[in-house]
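Hi there, hope your week has been kind to you so far. It would help a lot if you went through both lines with me. No rush at all, and the record is pasted right below:

***
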Amino acid sequence: MKKLMIICSSCLMLLLACHDEASEHGEKKENDSAMTGMAGNQPVSFAKIETLPAGMDTVLGKEPSKEVGFYKFSFPRSDLKVQLDGVTVDPRLAFTTWFSFAPMDQGGDAMLMGDMVLLEKELPGVEKKLTEDGINITAIHNHLLNEKPKMMYLHVDAMGDPLALSKKLKDVLSLTATPMKASFKDQLGEIKWDSVEQILGVKGKPAGPVINFGIPRREQVKAGGMDIPAGFGIATGIGFQKIGDKAAITGDFVLLDKEVVPVTEALIQNGITVTAIHNHMLMDSPRLFMMHFWAVDNPEKLAQGLKAALDKTNSKK
């Protein structure tokens, strides 16, 4: 049992990508009710979460998005007005807490992974409560530089009954000012991102002034000898926010060690600041690193710079 716990925990740690928008934007599989790799490359049925456990959506106060084989709850920090380089950053671009649940086996247990967006003053209480509740803290770090107020990102994983885990997460969220239901009054008309999509070579998911992209990697990533599905966040995430005739960009590149230097150079040469390089996961194979970035400029120019960096990676086109 201890060995199984270690393997499953390692698997979860691998799934914690910071801006995991690949689950929303990655390629659709032909069968959305199953994926392979969670049990020795054998197909795993996801029928048990076609309907959430009774009361789970009520506990967290909102319906999840239904992804390929798992459910994802998202909580944008709409309570905050974060400023950076004169930009009021939309929480859908960079400041969204999320939790995902996927079944582990036929016994009803689920794997939990997530990323909490926190003010520095919220961090100590959240850490203490997570530890008391048996939810693992797997990473704490920054994504951006010089934003006001300063934001931190805390990754979590756990396994067990999804209803019980969701109740614990609600208790943890209650220690923060995170809105359980965020609302946005988007007053901009429809924004045309066609040129950006064409340059990047992928369709994005728009939300108000923001559009987010997920670009999966080609490798099969493993943890503890088990395959990790691409839909669980092993992908590069890129976000654009419209700012007048310009755009702000942020996100994270998911990289092999040999790609870190070439991608860093490509971004910097194109006027994009690298704001953090770190790992989100443990015992992953191949070993992956996450590189965060920020810039404000002409959208097409920024897209060209990002494309130059993507071309240094083994990403799907």
